[in-house]
Amino acid sequence: MDTSEQSVESLAPLESGDLRLGDIPLQQTVELVNIDLPEDQAEPLLERGVLPGCQICPVRSSPSGDPIISVDGSLLALRRETADCLCVRLLTALQDVS
Amino acid sequence: MSSIVGDPCLSCSQHRAQSLVRLGLSPDRWDYLVALAGNPNTGKSTVFNELTGLRQHTGNWPGKTVVRAEGAFGHEGQRVKVVDLPGTYSLQAGSMDEEVARDFVLFGRPDVTVVVVDATRLERNLNLVLQILEITDRVVVFLNLMDEARRHGIALDVPKLERELGIPVVPGVAREGIGVDDLLVAVNEVATGVRKTAPFQLDRYVDEIEDAIGDLVPVVEEVYPEVPNARWVALRLLNADEAVQEAVLSGELGQLSRDDSGEVHEPPIVSAREKLLSASVRLRWKLPSDFHDIVTQHTYDEAGKVAGRVQMHGIKKVGFTFDRKLDSLLTSPVFGFPLMLLILAVVFWLTIEGANVPSAMLATLLIDTVHPWLKGLSSLIGIWGWLDGLLLDGVYLATAWVVSVMLPPMAIFFPVFTLLEDFGYLPRVAFNLDSLFRAAGAHGKQALTMCMGFGCNAAGVVATRVIDSPRERLIAIITNNFSLCNGRWPTQILIATIFIGALAPANFGGLVSAASVVGIALLGIVMMFVASWLLSRTVLRGEATSFSLELPPYRPPRVLQTLYTSIIDRTLIVLWRAVIFAVPAGAVIWLMSNLTLSGESMAYHLVEWLNPIGLLLGLNGVILLAYVVAIPANEIVIPTVLMLTVLTGGLVGGAGPGVMFEADSLGATEALLRGGGWTLLTAVNLMLFSLLHNPCSTTIYTIYKETRSAKWTALATVLPLVMGVTVCFLVAQVWRIVAA
Ligand SMILES: Nc1nc2c(ncn2[C@@H]2O[C@H](COP(=O)(O)OP(=O)(O)OP(=O)(O)O)[C@@H](O)[C@H]2O)c(=O)[nH]1
Ligand SMILES: [Mg+2]
After folding, report:
1. Residue of minimum CA distance from atom 23 in ligand 1
2. Which end of chain B has less Cβ packing within 10 Å, N or C?
3. Which helix (H) or strand (E) holds B589?
4. Model's pTM, two decimal places?
5. What ipTM is given for this predicted complex?
């Protein structure tokens, strides 16, 4: 896992609210909590392995802020609006609490 | 992991030749039917090619195959028919290509369904396997891409997976033909019933759901006795699956399940179909409120669990470091675009520079040597003058011209393009361009169909099946013609070389011509955005829907095989098409130039009549007439232009009127065109008009087939023409003002 201590701290305040994938800095692996999209738009994501409970890592982003995420070993390009509808939670912060 | 290597003798092609007899195209009769299903980009078409010896197109991006392909092979004395299906992530079809796959798996009644699975993405792939197992138990899993799995440190316990699923699981590397033999054996055993499968059963649902299913299944069986998977149909009806409901209501459900005897089942009477639907609606009230989520989540959970149990842990994940590094360049915010342009420019430069010499050689051979020889032969045996003119000066020369102009550039462009495609670059282009497409209200996958359009617009139009939103698919279809197709580069390349490349110092001529062709191709892309934007603000109003695009890992292309298939398949097929259109066009041109009306040829009258309009657009009457003659195929524009210029300019080029003169050298062509009154403006506007005009007849027909609408077909035909006329007119006016 390539999460650095520093990025966790800087994100800590956000953690209480509902965190969206769009807010996550690149290279930070997070866990998907749920998909806040109507069913017909969520379905294609589920089919491509974006399932609640899976680990997601935004690896790159285009100039307009569209992310490429890594999930289940494959790369998926999403649009920014879609990324903003994926509720996630930090993995490392959880470990810190325990 | 040892299982993929196995006995080297067993997996080499020499051995396979003994048991596998490739039969190529589908026979009329077969002993059993095998369907190749699976997630997109898992290697289904590669397996299909291995089995049948056919050359179904493969490509490293999801959505390469969009229609089903059929083939056959012989094995153990049995004739086996194979159907290659488009990839699908699940049986809840979203886009049209997925629908093709789903319908065949559901209602095509394959004897065996081979699910080609990507070993590096087991969980997601198993989801589809489990869904298919709900429908049929005659399933074999081909665990493909084992070489990539190994490279990335993913190990799978194959025997355990086989036990978990209760069906044969064959590991392999389709690209190398490894495992294909074992697959044949497994398929044969399942088809003949030698091997009984005991497929994985999804856990039963909670009682309320099972009760509802139990109530509905008998109704399904009563109304549609021939449907093989009543439980699945019942579940989909309870889930209010629109496609299945529609199939029930229209009677299509029974049609699709027609068996191979060719006998078509009469659809049940309307009242029975409605009864089935109302029964499902009534039962829905008894279901728990989160029924839909339960059903959807069910398979995902199970697939995850099975995958977790067979993936061997403790092996270091090597990951995709090379891929990541390359991606950080090719999809970089800074370098992504410049690199895209550079790659495009290099491809065109290779094409232009490389094609020069062979083109000239072909022209010397076919036009300077063979044509006079044929003329000599014909005068020797004394053929009628008009027939000799029609055949040799019309038909033969038109064809020879098309061959020498088109063959060399295509034989370079297609392999290079296919190598890029096989490498996995296309989805990266789509990613880079997505923000522009979104701003235009279009779908991100339109970039993929655009790339296919660079090969052939008709192919690009069919490729739009990967776009699931009907509105955005229509936009992609209507604007595909703005991709500069291969039929139009010869025009672009020739004119760019003569008029624009010549402006630069000799050493840079090739580069400058390549740059101007790239400029035209880019202008086409800009026009595609403009047209998409206009459409989505007017007749096809709506917001861009969300989409997600998988970026496959980069794969080293198979150079020799790519060369072979792209030359044999694409180049020769496209060339053949061009020749077929050139033959009648050559005849028409010859006739137009030799039939006279009050002392002048028909062609002369037409050109004179079109000239004022042409000049207004910065073109001339010859070019406009050539475009009318070339509606069947863009490829013949240039030969027609040259021939008509000779004729109406009163220049001595060939042996007589209507003869496609011997423009074997660029210098001769240039002298001719300049003599015909051509200027730099004519050249630039010809390049623009060649980009922006109506699609060729094949594309128009394909658009009609895909949209089933005369209205959209007409729009797709007229829109680029209107844009072309406008652009040429404006350029001509501005040019003349500036020049004056
Ligand atoms: N390394 C490796 N590459 C493979 C193997 N099998 C197929 N490929 C490559 O994977 C890519 C996809 O292959 P296709 O056969 O087009 O896949 P498909 O499942 O038909 O794809 P769609 O038609 O888009 O659903 C191509 O670039 C193939 O060369 C394999 O066993 N190993
Ligand atoms: Mg395919």
Report:
1. B65
2. C
3. helix B572-594
4. 0.84
5. 0.79
